[in-house]
Amino acid sequence: MLKTIVTGLLRKRTSPEALNELGIVKWREGDLSQATRIFREMIRRYPRFAPAYGNLGAVLFVQNRFDEALAVFEEGVALDPEHVSLQTNLAMAYHRGRRIDKAIAHYRQALERDPAATAARSHLLRAYLDGCHWRSAEAMITRLTERFAQRDGGNWQADVSPFVALQISSSAAFQLAVASYHARHIARAVPAGPVPARPTVRRREKNARIRLGYLSGDFREHAVAHQTLPLYGLHDRERFEVFCYSIGPDDGSVYRRRIAADADEFVDLTALSHVDAASKIRHDGIDILIDMAGHSGNSRPEIPALRPAPVQISYLGYPGTSGASWIDVMVADNAVIPAALHEHYSERIVYLPDCYLMAHAGQPVAERPSRRELGLPETGFVYCCFNQSSKITREMFEAWLEILQQVPGSVLWLYHDNDEARRCIEAEVAARDFAVGRVFFAGRVASKAEHLARYRAADLFLDTFPYTAHATGCDALWAGLPVLSMAGESFASRVGMSLLINAGLPELVVTDRDAYVRTAIELGRHPHRVHDCAERLRRRRENCALFDAPRYVQNLEALFSRLFAGYASRCNRDGPA
C-alpha cells in the first residue's frame, strides 16, 4: 500500500517540498532505497532545488556510497553556497575521505552562515581531533566542560557526539550526560511500527538453544572483526544459535566471509528500514540481542530502540554508556568499570572474570623488518604509538616530547592517519629544536601480518589518554611489544589497564601524568627492564587470560546463560518486564 502511495506521488506533479518531506520520512524510517529513489526523482524534476542534493547525498552517505555522495554534495554547494546543511554534508564527505583540511574549511563555512548549526559544530570538533588541531579543539572542549560543570540546562550536549565525548573527557558523569541526551532524541525519532514494546520469551522446546543476535556495522575489515573473528565459531552449538545481523558494508574481506561462514545465520539488514530490521530480529526469535555498535560510526540504535529482543546488551564495540533505556546490560570487567562508578551508567553492569575485550589470539605475524626498512634509526630507543590521530591530545604529545628530551637518542614513531594530522604534528616538532628529526611516521602496509611485525621494531608502546588503546593495544601485546598506559575514570580510559592486567604486565599501568612520564623515561634509560617485560610477555602470550579465546567464550556463554535465565524466570513469574 505504501509503495503504491509513493509511486503515485512520483507520477503526479507533486511540489518539491512535498516530495522532499516524503523522502525525509522514508529516510527516518530507514527505508533508504525508497528515499534514494525519491530524492533522485526530485533532482530530475527540480534541478535547482538545493535541499534535494543535500538529502540525496546524505542517504547515499549512510549507505557507504561515499564517492557518489561527495559528487552530489559538491554539485549542491555549487548550486547554493549559502545552504548550511549542504556545506555541512560536504564537509562530512571530505571528513570520511580523511581530507581533514577541506572538512574543517566547510564546517567553518557552515557555522559562519549559521552559528547555531549544531551538527556542523559537533562534526567540527571531531575534525579538529582527527587533524590534531589541538588548540582549536581545546577551546571547544573547555566550553562544553564548563557548561557541564555549571549544570547548564541548555542543549550543550548537541554540540558533541557521544563517541567524541569518550575522546575529550575521562569523566564518566560527563559521558553519561552526553549519551543520555542523544539517546532521548533517538527514542523520540523512532518510528511507530509493529514491533512490541517488550517481546515475551519465545515458546521453546525443553532444552532449546538460546538464540544470540550480534548486531554490528563492522563485520568487515575493521578492528571489531579483527578482535572477535574466532568468537562466532567457538560458541557451543548444543547450547546456542548464532545470528549475525550486519548493518554495515560488505567489503568482501576474509573477515566478512569468515564471520558469515561461522554464524548459523548471517543477515544483511542494510536495505531494511529500522522497523523492518527490528521485525526481522523479532521474527527470528532472538533471545539476546547484542549491540556491538552503540553510538559509534556504523550504528543504527533505532533498531534496538524498537525492542526486538527480550534481553538487549551493549558489548565490546562501544566503550561507554549508551544512556539508553533500551539497553538492559553492559558487559564489562572489574578494571574498566569499578563498582564505585556504576551510577554513571544507564545499564546494569555485568562482569566477565577476565578482560571484557576479546583479543584475537593466533593472528599471524610476519618476519620482523629491520629498522632501516622501516625508515627508523638503527640505534636508540624507539617509542611508538599506532593509535588513531584523534586519540592524541596536546597534553599527551607534550608528555611524549618531554620523554624524548630526557632519553638521549630516542625517537617517537606514530601512525600516519591523515595528512592534516601529520602536518600539525610536524609543526609542533619544528617548534622545538631538540625534537627535530626524532619523530617518524608509519604508513599503511599490505597485510595485518606485516603490520603486527612492525611492532617488533619498537621498544615500548606509549598509550594515549583519555581514550586508550583497545584493539591496537591487543595488537601490540600480541606482537610482543609492552604497552605503558595511564588509567582514568571512564571506561575508555581504563581499557589499556585491563589489557595489561590480563596480559600479566600490571606494573605498566599508571594513574597520573607524572608517573607516566617518569616510567617511560626510566624504561628508555634502562632498556633491559622493558626488554624483560617483552620477554615475559612472549613467554606467557599463549596462556595468559587476554589471549585465551576458548576460555573467553566459555565465560561469555556463562554470562549470557545467566542473563537469559534470570529474565525468563522473572517473565514466567511476573509477566514480561
Main attributes of the structure:
577 residues, 24 helices, seven-stranded parallel sheet, alpha/beta, 3 domains, 13 strands, Rossmann fold, six-stranded parallel sheet, Serine Threonine Protein Phosphatase 5, Tetratricopeptide repeat
- CATH class category name of the largest domain: Mainly Alpha
In spatial order, strands of the major sheet run 3-2-1-4-5-6-7
Shape descriptor: globular
- Alpha carbon gap, first and last residue: 34 Å
Radius of gyration: 24 Å
SSE-based structural type: alpha/beta
Contiguous low-pLDDT stretches (5 residues minimum) are 1-5
- Total of DSSP H or I helical runs spanning 4+ residues: 24
Mean of the pLDDT scores?
Answer: 92
Specify the biggest β-sheet: 7 strands, parallel
Strand content: 5-15%
- Roughly what percent helix? 40-55%
Total number of distinct structural domains:
3
Count of DSSP strands: 13
Description of the structure:
With 577 residues, the chain is of the alpha/beta class. It folds into three domains: 178 residues, Tetratricopeptide repeat domain (Serine Threonine Protein Phosphatase 5, Tetratricopeptide repeat, Alpha Horseshoe); 175 residues, 3-Layer(aba) Sandwich (Rossmann fold), CATH 3.40.50; 166 residues, Rossmann fold, CATH 3.40.50. 49% of the residues lie in helices and 10% in strands. The protein has 24 helices and 13 strands. A seven-stranded parallel beta sheet has the order 3-2-1-4-5-6-7, with helices on one face. Strands 10-9-8-11-12-13 form a six-stranded parallel beta sheet, with helices on both faces. It is globular. The protein starts with a helix and ends with a helix. The N terminus is likely disordered.
